[in-house]
Amino acid sequence: MSTENLLQLQGVHTHIGAYHILHGVDLAVPKGQLTMLLGRNGAGKTTTLRTIMGLWQASQGSIHFNGRDITRMHTPQIAHLNIAYVPENMGIFADLTVKENLLLAARKASNAARMDQERLQWIFKLFPAVEKFWNHPAGKLSGGQKQMVAVARAIIEPRDLLIVDEPSKGLAPAIINNMIEAFDQLKKSGVTILLVEQNINFAKRLGDTVAVMDNGRVVHAGSMAALAADEALQQSLLGLSL
């Protein structure tokens, strides 16, 4: 597996109004791997994702994707580089059907029949609920089903990088297991993934590499397996054990 970094943040600072949220974030996301971004609430994880996507502008530092400087790019330009982002609130269009939600993201398809059918079948295998509720309004689905729709929508076209904010939040254990299997399959298909997560079991089962944030900085980076095996380190970084 290549250890070349697909995404790299160096010394990234982000201000939101009068607030200085990120204080020099250094983060590397190796190509073909699943990187976990962990940390207590308020550590700056979501701000980091939003800064990568250009939703908030870095006030200092640089962000490189695939060797290209994207620090000053606008969100649509960043998305066009084959980066998909699933925010914590999922961003589902509640009044549209599941099919319409996915069609919106399938840039090459003008109607459902023109979607890549082979890819659609692959998504249905990852997330059976997407097929089951294909013609249902997305707003009527459960939290877990909405999360599946949000991820399915992000991967309806092939992506080089998938960024997901807390995919397991509020989900039942059975749905979390389904989500873990789906991300594992995605990783095996060659997608590089950056996940913010609070569920440590989720992180432990999926992560190749890990970065832990505290007070707007990355305070630890390394292999997920090494962190999972070191209870003293977990306790000092996260105040919990895996």
What would you say this structure looks like, in words?
InterPro entries: AAA+_ATPase (IPR003593), ABC_transporter-like_ATP-bd (IPR003439), ABC_transporter-like_CS (IPR017871), BCAA_Transport_ATP-bd_LivF (IPR052156), P-loop_NTPase (IPR027417). Belongs to the ABC transporter superfamily. GO terms for molecular function: ATP binding; ATP hydrolysis activity; branched-chain amino acid transmembrane transporter activity. This is ABC transporter ATP-binding protein. The strands form two sheets. Strands 6-7-8-3-9-10 form a six-stranded mixed β-sheet, sandwiched between helices. Strands 2-1-4-5 form a four-stranded antiparallel β-sheet. The protein folds into two domains: 166 residues, Rossmann fold; 66 residues, no CATH class. The chain is an alpha/beta fold and 242 residues long. The model has no long low-confidence stretch (mean pLDDT 92). The longest helix has 16 residues. The protein contains ten helices and ten strands. It starts with a strand and ends with a helix. Helix 3 packs parallel to helix 6. It is globular.
